[in-house]
Amino acid sequence: MLEADQTIGGRVQTDLVDGYRFDRGFQVLQLAYPAAKKLLDYDMLEIKKFPPGVRIRAANSFHVLADPLRKPAYITKALFSKVGTFADRLKLARLAVEVNAVSLEKLFEKDEMLVQDFLVSYGFSDSMITRFFKPFMTGVCLDPGLQVTNRFLLFVLRMFVQGDVGVPALGMGEIPKQLAKTITAERIVCNAAVESLEGTTVTLENGQQITGEAVVLATPAPETARLLGKPYSMKSSREMCFYYSTREAPIKEPFLTLNGEENGLINSVNFSSMVAPDYAPAGSQLISAVVPGYPDAPETEIEKTVRNELKEWFGNQTDTWEMLRSYTISHALPQPAPPSSNPFMQRSHLGNNIFDCSELSTMPAIQWALLAGERAAEEVTNILKTS
Ligand SMILES: Cc1cc2nc3c(=O)[nH]c(=O)nc-3n(C[C@H](O)[C@H](O)[C@H](O)COP(=O)(O)OP(=O)(O)OC[C@H]3O[C@@H](n4cnc5c(N)ncnc54)[C@H](O)[C@@H]3O)c2cc1C
Fold first, then answer.
1. What's the CATH code, domain 193-233+341-386?
2. In the chain, where the domains are located
3. pLDDT for 85-128, tens place per residue?
4. Which residues line the pocket of ligand 1, CB cutoff 6 A?
5. Can you give the pTM of this predicted structure?
6. What phi, psi does 354 have (nearest 5°)?
């Protein structure tokens, strides 16, 4: 395995600095991902779960929309919250039943349209779309415009209905580390960036050439397109993530906290160390604020705005929060706009023993990266067996 970086993990890495665990951009594992359930050992990862629901900042206050069965204490508040109407709650419940009633494969055969158009045609109110779906989908796809395929929404909703959201106790970077344990260490070569591809011969940036029986591409979509010499026009979702430390968190339950106001840079605020205490040293809390895209301003200016927004949300105590670290990610994922690839129909063999299991030919997310990798392994094995 040739890896350009000095370590494995790609976009799923955790930096351990002074006892804090900084995921490279806030991210989570949806525990219902079928491929993750099959290929990962959740017990070994010591998965820590977020509470089932979200906290939404809207109309200058917080509103919790939680799973009514597991968090009954929030039912009354949710019914009368300023996020959508009672009819919206019923429609959301109906949609949750619908996405669960068919197989995951069938969800990717549904008529495809933009999320925005789907929500309007389903009858959701403006308030529900603006205050709930928009920040929710921005959190998932980092696209504030709801310009992604409705199939992605249906997939993510199904995952939320079927399981919790969590992180490994020692950070998201434990996921690729666990996968790498299935390969002997000497078969992983880091600092080996592939410059070009000719048949099944790769040329590294240092000029070294390596010829294999097959080549499997597992690079980010723009890089896969470059190596294959294909035109590339997908839009990359980008994010900035600011990490703060404080002694005491300003909330009691660490629900994923979303910005449902129609303004502001922040999309979500996340209390990772309340969920997974090893994310921060004893006596401290690690909090992240995620800004999708990156605004056209110097980072210090953006951070100043983020801090002002945090103060509006959580009060003066944020003055004492220390900004520890920030990440700017120029390609978090390719925006899954329609027409999108059906991840179940995709085959990785491109011909001549070249295989593509990257997000260029499937959907973005850990579920699809794992599934595509597994499929490619099967295809390579079968094709090499018969050749
Ligand atoms: C901030 C952020 C938040 C996210 N949130 C979530 C989330 O909550 N849930 C979710 O499911 N998904 C999330 N994702 C998406 C998820 O991380 C990706 O879908 C997944 O990591 C893709 O895995 P991959 O192995 O295909 O690509 P990558 O993880 O990008 O791995 C590709 C590897 O290829 C290497 N490489 C690149 N070019 C070359 C070259 N020329 N030669 C050799 N090696 C090369 C890279 O160094 C890298 O290690 C998020 C991503 C980011 C960045």
1. 3.50.50.60
2. 1-192+234-340, 193-233+341-386
3. 999 989 999 999 999 999 999 999 999 999 999 999 999 999 99
4. 2-5, 10-12, 25, 27-28, 193-194, 218-220, 223, 239, 329, 332-333, 358-359, 364-367, 369
5. 0.96
6. -105, 130
